[in-house]
Amino acid sequence: MTRDELANASDLLESAAETTSGDAADRLTEIASQIERLATADRGPDHGRLARWQNALGEVKADVDEATGETIEEALDAIVAYRSTVDGV
Q1: Is the pTM of this model over 0.85?
Q2: How many other CB atoms are there within 10 angstroms of residue 8's CB atom?
Q3: Distance between CA atoms of residues 35 and 42, nearest Å
Q4: 46 sits in which H/E element
Q5: Are 15 and 73 in contact (CB under 8 A)?
Q6: How far, CA to CA in Å, does 85 sit from each of 5, 19, 20, 33, 42?
C-alpha cells in the first residue's frame, strides 16, 4: 500500500534538496528517504515520527531560500494531510 501524501512529501523534499546545498540538502535528503520508506511499509509512521519530521523541516525551512522554503511547505502540507488520517492523538 502506498500512502500517497507521504510519497508526494518525499518527492517534494527530494526536489527541495536539489535546490539547496550543505547541511540543509543533507537533512532534506535524509528525511525524504525516511518518508519514502514508510510510504510503502506495512505500517505508516505514528504521530511522534510525523511531529519530528514537521519540526525538523521547520528548522531546515528557516535556513533556505524562499523558493526552497515554499517546496518544503508543500511537503509539510502533505504530511499534515496524511497525519489527519492517523488514529491516535
Answers
A1: yes
A2: 19
A3: 13
A4: none
A5: no
A6: 10, 30, 31, 21, 16
Write out the H or E segment, with its range, that includes residue 45: none
Residue indicated by cell numbers 533556505: 64
**Residue holding cell 510503502?**
40
For residue 35, give the C-alpha cell.
518518508
Alpha carbon distance 29, 11 (integer Å):
10
Residue in the block written with cell 517534494? 12
Residue of 13, 70, 71, 73 whose CA lies nearest to 38: 13
CA dihedral for 53, 56, 59, 60, sign (positive or negative): negative
The answer to whether residues 65 and 16 touch, using CB atoms and an 8 Å cutoff, is no
One-letter amino acid for residue 68 of the chain: T
Express each pLDDT in 30-62 by its tens digit. 999 999 999 999 999 999 999 999 999 999 999
Q: Which three cell numbers stand for residue 80?
A: 499534515
